[in-house]
Amino acid sequence: QVTLKESGPGILQPSQTLSLTCTFSGFSLSTYGMGVGWIRQPSGKGLEWLANIWWDDDKYYNPSLKNRLTISKDTSNNQAFLKITNVDTADTATYYCARIGANLYYFDYWGQGVMVTVSS
Amino acid sequence: DIVLTQSPALAVSLGQRATISCRASQSVSLSRYNFMHWYQQKPGQQPKLLIYRASNLASGIPARFSGSGSGTEFTLTINPVQADDIATYYCQQNRESPWTFGGGTKLELK
């Protein structure tokens, strides 16, 4: 069965770099058409798409975060990663990774999320 | 960016029909494909896929959920509403990047 689990630092200070890991099972990111996305949700607010990475290493980013995002993957270890540079309090949120099924282009499985707090 | 607009809340009675709408700032349809999807999120949980491509029921989702629409107007219907359906519902488009979500509609009991 498909599972995804996010991990992160929990708390970090403004201007630091946030590094998130998504460890998944039940599928491979080397499968044609497969993808993983990152989505975040501030407490009590809506969902914001951040980035997607695809089986062929193609990457898409939300331009609202300008050049602060970097998404990557380790196919052999079934992991995807997201880095956000120069964080501030507005980046405090629960961060989700989600699978984009092969050639489906929607999020069909989600991780449980990891809460990240940016505070001085 | 394509903006998706949802009403913030909807109050319904158990056993009645709930109709949740999502309006897109421009068409999210192309040819016969509608690039609109619906998710359910209960408090403290991750979102769950309900409907993909506007009208297709995701695996394991009860048949009381249905979706319709095309172009810029889409609807998620729950009929009849059960207590377990109390949650926030989000629409999401992938017609264009950046992928965007609606603000969510919180389904409440009357």
Structural notes for this entry:
The complex is a heterodimer of chains A (120) and B (110). Chain A is 0% helix and 51% strand. Chain A has 120 residues and is mainly β. In chain A, the strands form two sheets. In chain A, strands 2, 4, 5, 6, 9, 10 and 11 form a seven-stranded mixed β-sheet that branches. In chain A, strands 1-3-8-7 form a four-stranded antiparallel β-sheet, with no helix packed on it. Chain A is globular. The model of chain A has no long low-confidence stretch (mean pLDDT 96). Chain B has 110 residues and is mainly beta. In chain B, strands 2, 6, 7, 8, 11, 12 and 13 form a seven-stranded mixed β-sheet that branches. In chain B, a hairpin with a 6-residue loop joins strand 6 and strand 7. The radius of gyration of chain B is 13 Å and the shape is globular. Chains A and B meet through strand 5 and strand 10 of A and strand 7 and strand 12 of B.
Quick structural gist:
Chain A is mostly beta strands and 120 residues long. Chain A has strands spanning 3-7, 11-12, 18-25, 35-41, 48-54, 59-61, 69-74, 79-84, 93-100, 107-110, 114-118. Chain B has strands at residues 4-5, 9-12, 18-24, 29-30, 33-34, 36-41, 48-52, 56-57, 65-70, 73-78, 88-93, 100-101, 105-109.
- Most extensive interface, chain pair and sizes: A-B, 24 and 23 residues
Calculate Rg of chain A over CA atoms: 14 Å
Strand content of chain A: over 45%
Structural class of chain A: mainly beta
Mind summarizing the main beta sheet of chain A?
Answer: 7 strands, mixed
Distance between the termini of chain A: 40 Å
Unreliable stretches of chain A (pLDDT < 50, length at least 5) are none
Q: Label the overall shape of chain A.
A: globular
